[in-house]
Design brief:
Blueprint: H1 2-37, H2 45-52, H3 54-65, H4 76-99, H5 104-113, H6 122-130, H7 133-147, H8 149-160, H9 175-197, H10 199-202, H11 205-209, E1 234-238, E2 244-248, H12 253-277
Amino acid sequence: MEGVTHLNVRWRSLSDFKHFSSYLVGMLCFIQAIPVVYGQCPKRVQDHANACMADYSTQFQNMQSDRRKLFSGMDVEPLRAFCSGYKQSMACIEVLKRNCSNNSQEAYPKIDTALLNLKGARTALTDLCKDDNLYEVYARFRTCFVTEGPASEYCFTRIMNVSIQLLTTLDYKSTDELCSDMRQVMQCIKSNIELHCGMEASTIVEKLVRPMVRGSSQCSFIEIPMTVNDGENTTPTYKSGGRRSNTRDSGDNGTNFSHSRTLSCVYLILFLVVVLLC
């Protein structure tokens, strides 16, 4: 009986120790965060900046290990968790910078060191994560994005000759060259998604594709009308889905049509006169 009592005391002590350990860790984290929360610039600025980015870094690794790409039908929940981690990390960094504004010359370079992984990507990630409606649209069309995934990935492979991952860094001689290829990739993926998944699904393609390539936020994806220079004027018109096609405009089609109608009436009258005279 004494052994059982002793065993219960031992297990109860172990449980108490675990609770105490968790409490101690929580208190240490709280104490570490006090300088950021209450407006003081911490002495170890870079450590705090790295701590701010910890959640984002974890979710980024999860996104990288997903067998499906952002634009080819990955599960919505990892995407939601990634955006949540990104927004929390950015909010933490903003608070840290605000608290260290009086010592910005020394503190900001240390804070920016923690943001190196986001170089050339913050605008695209912010656009991706600020639209809560995107998750709903993505969830409804996810199956179609999965089905068209190989075609979407082939757009990158064919045009950029690369197997793409989230925040891929590509070696281009100029921004113009990068943007030229990005526009082709975007049109390739978007037109295919619009064709097979519908117009609404195609509206989120740009937000899903931009974060794949660093620096893509510098590129404009406004569609430019294609014209054929064959000696005649060409007028761009819209087909379904907003893509433009060319219809020839000779400049006097309306006049020709009017002349044709007049001649037809004259011939009809002459025919009736001949019939009456006979």
